[in-house]
Structure formats: structure tokens, C-alpha cells
Amino acid sequence: MKTILGCLFSLLFSLSTSLLADNLSIGFAHADLNNPYYLAMEKMAYTQAAARGVKMTVLNAGNDQITQNKQIDALLDMDINGLIVNSVNEYGSMVAIKKARSRGIPVVAIDRPLYGDYLAYVGIDQWRAGELQGEYIVKHLLPKGGNIVMLLGIPGEPATIGRESGMLNVIQHPKQAGKYNILGSYRADYCLEVGYQKMQEAITTFGSKIDLVYGLNDAMALGALKALREAGLAKVMIVGIDGQKEAYDEIAKGGQYKATVINNPAEVTRKAVDLLVNHIKSGKPPASTSVITGTILVNKDNVAKHQNPNALF
User: Fold this and answer.
1) Which of 62-71, 109-118, 179-188, 275-284 has the lowest average pLDDT?
2) How many CB atoms are located within 10 Å of the residue 304 CB?
3) Do 152 and 185 form a contact (C-beta atoms < 8 A)?
4) pTM of the full predicted structure?
5) At 26, phi and psi to the nearest 5?
6) Is the C-alpha dihedral spanning 26, 29, 33, 38 positive or negative?
């Protein structure tokens, strides 16, 4: 009799868990959809949620923090069971996240670290990504020094801070004193078209003085590459971050585009969805509150290992 009751209990538990999964709903407050990386995150969010039997709602803030906070309120009013946040900036969403937690809604930060009472962060080490590019510039691209133009993301948000500061921490180290000159830093919003426009401005101002362009993501760097080609500046080197497949293609050609750093949107988003769903279903905290995905520099020596024409990004 005990065995039969035990089997029945297990069956009922399995059925209730299955029904719970079918009725789970997750909100994703996304910073923007202005480049392929963010679009790949959105696609994987829907794909992985469907694979887990969970409803997913993604809202695009258009890089506006006020809009994002209103969207988080809207998601909470949908009676979601969990929230993923790619915050426009690290402080601006604190009040909205506090509201979510007051309602018992767990929050996962994705791609951009933030401040607040959240369950876990999932993404690359943004500072280390910048350091990797700084080290590659110092050791391999401009060992004797040179003039650099920087294309930045959104001011004040964690990826911009980490990727910029990590790189500057290397090239402005006392042992590199006087070797590297930042000609100009331009806000290009992680967008290819804006990167192209800002690079045109830099070319007009600095011309052949430019030795290297550091784009804080590959989309901006690819925009810069287009502008440099049009200006006939074929010797200017370019590096980026994110591991966009078009950047891999350029690196494989052995031309101006020298390196990127992997920041796989599919991996980051899949892990964030799984972490949140697992927590909601089990009630247990994740094994780690910081899930750092592979932060790896890719250049001509290892690009063949990472190229995948069928990748989302």
C-alpha cells in the first residue's frame, strides 16, 4: 500500500509540475533591438522559453530608461512569474526591480550587470573583454604605440564602462606611459549605421593619423570598417567585441579587422532563461549569482574554430 501511495504521489507531483511549467510566464525587459546581437537575444529568448513550455514576452525599451521602467511595470501587471532585465543602465532600473521583488518576482540580469535585488547575472566579464583587446593591441597590433579612435556604446551602462575601462586600464598602465594616444571617443550606441557616421567624423578630423579603431561592439566596428574603406584608409586596424559572424568573416580574410571577443547571445540568453525557469519551478537559489560565459579573444589564429554561417549572430 505504501508503495502504491508513493507512486501515486510521484505521479501527481509530476503532473502538477508539468501543469505549472505550461502556465509559467516570463517577461524580458530588453534594452534595445538596434543591432544583430540584441535581435539574436530576443530570438533565443522566445526559442528557449518555448522549449521549456513557458510563455515569453519581450519588450524593447529603445535605450530609454524611463520607457524600460514603464515596460517593467506593464510586465508585472501581466502577472509574470519571473523577469529578465537587460537594463539600459545599471542604476536606472533599481526602483522597478525593487517593485518586482516586492511582489515575489525573481529577476535575472542579462548581458549588463546592474544594481538591485536580483537573483543572478548572466553574461560575459565586460571588464575582461576590454582587457583582452587592450592586451592584444599592446602585444601584437601596436607594440610601439599609436593613435586610437574609440567607438563607445551607451554612456553609463555597464558594458560600455567595462569594455572601455578594461582596455584603457591596459594601454594607460604606467609601463605604457606616452605610447598610446586616444585621438577621440565617439558615442555610437552599439549601432552599425551610427558607427559608420561617427567614423566618417573621425576621418574628417584625424585622417591618416589614425592607427587603430576600437569598437566596443562588432556592429560599430563593422560600420567603421565601411567608412575606412570608402576613405581609402586600408592600413587602419580595427578590433571589436561580441563575436558577430560578419566580424569573424573579416578576421578570416586577414585584412584590417584584427580581433573580437566572444559574447555569444544565444548562450547568454539560453542560460538566463534556464536559470530563471529552474528557480521558479524548484524554489531553490541558483548555484551561482554570477554566471560568466566564455570571454575569449578571437583573431586570425583561432577564428576558424568559431565561424559558423548558420549561427544566430
Assistant:
1) 109-118
2) 11
3) yes
4) 0.83
5) -120, 140
6) negative
How, if at all, do strands 146-152 and 120-123 pair? unpaired
Write out the DSSP string of 204-243. Answer: HHHGGG--EEEESSHHHHHHHHHHHHHTT-TT-EEE-SB-
**Distance between CA 135 and CA 295 in Å, rounded?**
14
**Is-contact 114 158, C-beta < 8 A?**
yes
Give the burial class of 80: count Cβ atoms within 10 A of its Cβ; 0-12 exposed, 13-18 middle, 19 or more buried.
Answer: buried
User: Of the candidates 224, 226, 190, which has an alpha carbon nearest to the alpha carbon of residue 210?
Assistant: 224
CB 89 within 8 A of CB 64: no
Assigned C-alpha cell, 49:
522559453
Residue appearing with cell numbers 549588463: 112
Question: Order of strands across the sheet with 82-85?
Answer: 55-60, 25-30, 82-85, 107-110, 120-123, 290-292
15, pLDDT greater than 50? no
Q: How far apart are CA 287 and CA 281, in angstroms?
A: 15
Higher-confidence residue: 14 or 249? 249
Domains and CATH numbers, the chain: 2-123+265-293 (3.40.50.2300), 126-261 (3.40.50.2300)
SS3 (DSSP) at 33:
coil
Strand partners, 83: 27, 107
Set of cell numbers at residue 238: 580595427
Q: Is 183 helix (H, G, I), strand (E, B) or coil?
A: strand
